[in-house]
């Protein structure tokens, strides 16, 4: 973390081009050599409403959205939704200003579209500006956009103004616009960009900038992508060529990326009638000899509970993706939460098992998605990639080399026709597909169409060739064999050939902070700040939820006096899982929880830690909640 | 060399090849219509010369769901109502397979109704046989979606207040390209229809009337029957959707009034299967996807080379 950073917030209504503009701007900053990180905040509606995206850019690597921001570009409410003059809902025209000011840092910059927004409608605006030393630019972006093109191009004008004020070379933006825009709209956009830039240069003293934008240089080539991109690319590189799904936010992102890319690699994407069908299709395709995936978010994943159990019972490999959003039920569709952990771990009847990964960032998402396929296909068990609306949607720069990995079309533990000729068969002539008694509990599967491989896959308990049976000895044998896989998987994951369960901070620290999934980067940033302030803290980001990394977490908890578990839900699910799996250290574990629809900011974690753990006091904020250790 | 040598291995076959050697005897009750489906399917597979290992028989849950325990091929006994999505995907992944799905009226028209409608709409190249005995058998005799109005059971003690579902109208209107009804009491017609259904390139729906002597005491309900294709009373052009639809409309109550119509109602040989449509728009590989994983020479594309430029 450095003071020398730009946190640029572009605010407006859905449909104002917030997403595309911020994406371009982030990429331009990345290309200029900076590290970037975006945070999206959007309502569950198509047009209008209040939405913003933050881009944090720094010469040093950035791991979270940071605290607040220092540059506001307030575009106004959605022009696209309200083509008529002055047609707004309620007082929404002032929202891009009034809703955003609390988090604007001292000395920050405000650029607002005076063609649409009026600061006189905001109480105490001038007082607050003076108090905080904000620099305010009222610029009629709307008229400028109208004069040179169309009103919707206000966002480009806003970017031009930003570049002029912050001293950013517009060439980066122009190059990107040339790549991304069709000719018809390219010229007016370039014109608007230039006009806005020049206007600020002429009318304001830009030689004494209000805000400094760092200069940086990457030592290797970077790409700008989201966690959803990384999951999709991990799946593709691991040879996944079949996806079936039903749209649901935020899982739709992975589904869309896969659907757009699969035809190019000769794969198949199916949008189907519901999530039960989606998971069932993935199972059917896998059964017939492909690598297949499906996925959903909370409510849709609930429907997959039944096929999930079928995949385990029939030992059909499949990878499911679960993108968490705030629940229960449809909850808050566009807001992040980590409340589906227990749902994903325990859904489906009986002694059912699955492997669950919870990657923290794009690089880890790529590697763990690949690992999820390897485990699923080697061990013939469903595996799940659990992430959330935050790490799925946030764009950040990642070294391109992360993705420079060999593809893998190996389909795991299948038997060839040659091997089938010598393999044990049932007296009925069927292949004993579920018969293995050796290590790891894995029995090679045949694929329909192979000579000599006939068997029955069934969700009922079954004999080695698949015949349905309730024989007690066979039941115990089959249950034990299926459970034996979990120990083998744990051992394989502990060998650690993919980045997982990340330790951060000094080894000898007095205190620990544990977290999982999307909060890891924010926790790491908080750990740095705490250590800079003289505390002694280290972090463990756990990214394997099942089978649980008991040994690694035990070692970590053994080494600290107390540990704060940070997670985005109200019932401390990850802490509960840790206590259940490890069975001790409960007295060391307290929780910092957040479930208001926004992810943690680093300062909330440092404040929670210092106030609750170090000083033993109650948290002053309503945004987060502290739950003390059981013995306190 | 192909990894799936059983596919296309069509030689002269005997129906007993589909009987599992030392398989336990079917658990169906004596006199159950399900035996008729098993017999007809074995006869059809033999007539088509299908290798047991190129066939994938996917079933749901219920008495009908046990079909693939007694029919020897590759089998997937799935979960209640979900045979179709699993079967569909298997066919897409390896189009060389002969995919047949089977289930009961509760399984296929009740809990799996949504999948039934959409599979017909999409016209997947597969055959769907529904054992229709107008009752839930394995859960011991509850009213099913095809039970007649007024049907009394433990769960509908006052008699069902619901109109029975019209499965043929449903699949025809949803878009199935082959729609037929046959009955266990008519094994020769049943076999011929299943042969035609499997040969048809598209979604074939066979509503297979089966008697349930245990829970639906009207075990003789499907006798006598009339074959609509042979009867002079019914003039039907099986290639004409409207003709099939009109006949269904006129006779849809007959099933519950003692006269049972069986036969081929609709057979559209021109409509391309879903797989073909998907290939036409470039969303489906020409070669079977599943083969690729067994081909050591196949070059797997990686996203780094293909997609990463747009993120730079």
Automatic annotation (TrEMBL), chain A:
Record flagged with keyword Oxidoreductase: yes
Coiled coil: none
Domain Pyruvate:ferredoxin oxidoreductase core, first and last residues per copy: 509-603
Pyruvate/ketoisovalerate oxidoreductase catalytic domain residues: 15-198
Keywords from the named record: Oxidoreductase
Biased composition (Basic and acidic residues): 422-442
Region (Disordered): 422-451
Highest taxon of the lineage: Archaea
UniProt-listed Pfam families: PFOR_II, POR, POR_N
Limits of the Pyruvate flavodoxin/ferredoxin oxidoreductase pyrimidine binding domain: 234-476
Keyword Transmembrane helix: no
Annotated PANTHER family: 2-OXOGLUTARATE OXIDOREDUCTASE SUBUNIT KORA, PYRUVATE-FLAVODOXIN OXIDOREDUCTASE-RELATED
Protein name (record): 2-oxoacid:acceptor oxidoreductase subunit alpha
Lineage: Archaea, Methanobacteriati, Methanobacteriota, Stenosarchaea group, Halobacteria
Automatic annotation (TrEMBL), chain B:
Sequence segments annotated as region (Disordered): 142-164
Transmembrane segments: none
InterPro entries, sorted: 2-oxoacid:Fd_oxidoreductase (IPR051457), OFOB (IPR011896), THDP-binding (IPR029061), TPP_enzyme_TPP-bd (IPR011766)
Cofactor: [4Fe-4S] cluster
Keywords of the record: Oxidoreductase
Every Thiamine pyrophosphate enzyme TPP-binding domain range: 61-207
PANTHER family according to UniProt: 2-OXOGLUTARATE OXIDOREDUCTASE SUBUNIT KORB, 2-OXOGLUTARATE OXIDOREDUCTASE SUBUNIT KORB-RELATED
UniProt-recorded name of the protein: Thiamine pyrophosphate-dependent enzyme
Taxonomic source organism: Halogeometricum salsisoli
Lineage, highest ranks first: Archaea, Methanobacteriati, Methanobacteriota, Stenosarchaea group, Halobacteria
């Amino acid at each position: 973390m450095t003071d020398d950073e730009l946190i640029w917030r572009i605010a407006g209504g859905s449909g104002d081009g917030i997403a595309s503009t911020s994406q371009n701007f982030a990429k331009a900053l990345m290309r200029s050599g900076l590290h970037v990180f975006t945070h999206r905040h959007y309502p569950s509606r198509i047009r209008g409403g209040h939405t913003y995206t933050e881009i944090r850019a720094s010469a040093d690597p950035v791991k979270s959205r940071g605290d607040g921001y220092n540059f506001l570009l307030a575009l106004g409410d959605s022009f696209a939704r309200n083509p008529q003059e002055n047609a707004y809902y309620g007082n929404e025209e002032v929202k891009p200003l009034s809703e955003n000011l609390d988090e604007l840092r001292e000395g920050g910059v405000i650029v607002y579209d005076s063609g649409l927004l009026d600061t006189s409608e905001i109480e105490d605006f001038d007082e607050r500006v003076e108090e905080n030393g904000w620099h305010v630019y009222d610029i009629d972006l709307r008229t400028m956009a109208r004069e040179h093109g169309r009103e919707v191009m206000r966002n480009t004008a806003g970017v031009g103004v930003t570049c002029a004020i912050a001293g950013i070379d517009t060439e980066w933006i122009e190059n990107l616009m040339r790549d991304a825009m069709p000719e018809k709209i390219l010229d007016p956009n370039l014109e608007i960009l230039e006009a806005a830039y020049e206007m600020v240069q002429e009318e304001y003293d830009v030689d004494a900038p209000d805000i400094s934008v760092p200069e940086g240089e990457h030592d290797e080539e970077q790409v700008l992508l989201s966690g959803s991109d990384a999951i999709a690319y991990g799946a593709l590189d691991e040879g996944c060529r079949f996806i079936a799904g039903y749209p649901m936010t935020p899982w739709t992102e992975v589904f869309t990326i896969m659907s757009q890319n699969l035809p190019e690699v000769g794969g198949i994407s199916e949008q189907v009638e519901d999530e039960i069908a989606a998971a069932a299709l993935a199972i059917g395709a896998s059964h017939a000899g492909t690598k297949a995936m499906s996925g959903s978010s909370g409510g849709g994943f609930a429907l997959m509970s039944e096929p999930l159990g079928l995949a385990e019972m029939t030992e059909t490999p499949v990878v499911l993706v679960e993108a968490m959003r705030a629940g229960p039920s449809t909850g808050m569709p566009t807001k992040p939460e980590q409340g589906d952990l227990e749902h994903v771990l325990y859904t489906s009847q009986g002694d059912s098992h699955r492997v669950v990964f919870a990657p923290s960032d794009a690089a880890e998402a790529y590697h763990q998605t690949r690992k999820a396929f390897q485990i699923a296909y080697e061990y013939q068990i469903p595996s799940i990639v659990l992430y959330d609306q935050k790490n799925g949607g946030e764009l950040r720069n990642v070294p391109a080399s992360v993705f420079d990995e060999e593809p893998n079309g190996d389909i795991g533990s299948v038997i060839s026709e040659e091997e089938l000729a010598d393999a044990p068969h049932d007296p009925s002539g069927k292949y004993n597909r579920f018969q293995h008694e050796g290590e790891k509990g894995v029995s090679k599967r045949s694929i329909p169409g192979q000579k000599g491989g006939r068997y029955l896959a069934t969700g009922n308990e079954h004999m080695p060739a698949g015949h349905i049976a309730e024989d007690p000895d066979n039941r115990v044998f089959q249950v034990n064999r299926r459970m034996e896989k979990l120990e083998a998987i744990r051992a394989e994951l502990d060998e650690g050939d993919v980045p997982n369960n990340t330790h951060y901070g000094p080894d000898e620290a007095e205190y620990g902070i544990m977290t999982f999934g999307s909060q890891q980067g924010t926790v790491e940033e908080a750990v740095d700040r705490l250590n800079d302030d003289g505390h002694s803290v280290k972090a463990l980001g756990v990214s394997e939820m099942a089978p649980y990394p008991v040994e690694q977490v035990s070692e970590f908890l053994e080494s600290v006096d107390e540990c704060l578990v940070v997670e985005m839900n109200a019932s401390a699910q990850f802490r509960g899982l840790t206590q259940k799996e490890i069975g001790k250290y409960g007295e060391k574990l307290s929780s910092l929880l957040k479930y208001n629809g926004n992810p943690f900011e680093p300062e909330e974690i440092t404040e929670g830690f210092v106030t609750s753990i170090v000083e033993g006091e109650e948290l002053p904020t309503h945004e987060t909640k502290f739950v003390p250790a059981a013995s306190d | 060399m192909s990894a799936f040598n059983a596919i296309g291995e069509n030689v002269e076959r005997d129906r007993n090849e589909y009987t599992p050697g030392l398989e336990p005897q079917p658990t169906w009750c004596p006199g159950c219509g399900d035996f008729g489906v098993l017999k007809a399917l074995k006869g059809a597979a033999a007539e088509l010369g299908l290798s047991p290992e190129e066939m994938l028989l996917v079933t749901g849950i219920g008495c009908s769901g046990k079909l693939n325990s007694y029919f020897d091929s590759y089998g997937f006994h799935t979960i209640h109502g979900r045979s179709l999505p699993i079967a569909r995907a298997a066919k897409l992944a390896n189009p060389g397979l002969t995919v047949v799905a089977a289930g009961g009226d509760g399984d296929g028209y009740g809990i799996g109704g949504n999948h039934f409608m959409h599979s017909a709409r999409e016209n997947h190249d597969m055959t769907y046989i529904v054992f229709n005995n107008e009752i839930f058998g394995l859960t011991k005799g509850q009213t099913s979606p095809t039970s007649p109005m007024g049907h009394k059971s433990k769960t509908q003690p006052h008699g069902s207040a619901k109109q029975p579902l019209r499965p043929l109208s449903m699949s025809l209107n949803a878009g199935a390209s082959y729609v037929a009804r046959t009955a266990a009491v008519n094994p020769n017609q049943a076999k011929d229809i299943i042969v035609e259904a499997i040969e048809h390139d598209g979604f074939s729906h066979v509503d297979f009337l089966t008697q349930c002597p245990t829970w639906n005491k009207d075990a003789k309900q499907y006798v006598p029957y009339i074959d609509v294709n042979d009867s002079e009373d019914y003039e039907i052009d099986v290639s004409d959707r409207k003709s099939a639809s009109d006949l269904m409309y006129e006779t849809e109550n007959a099933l519950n009034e003692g006269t049972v119509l069986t036969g081929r109602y609709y057979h559209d040989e021109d409509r391309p299967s879903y797989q073909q449509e998907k290939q036409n728009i470039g969303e489906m590989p020409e070669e079977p996807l599943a083969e690729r994983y067994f081909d050591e020479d196949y070059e797997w594309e990686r996203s780094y080379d293909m997609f990463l430029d747009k993120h730079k």
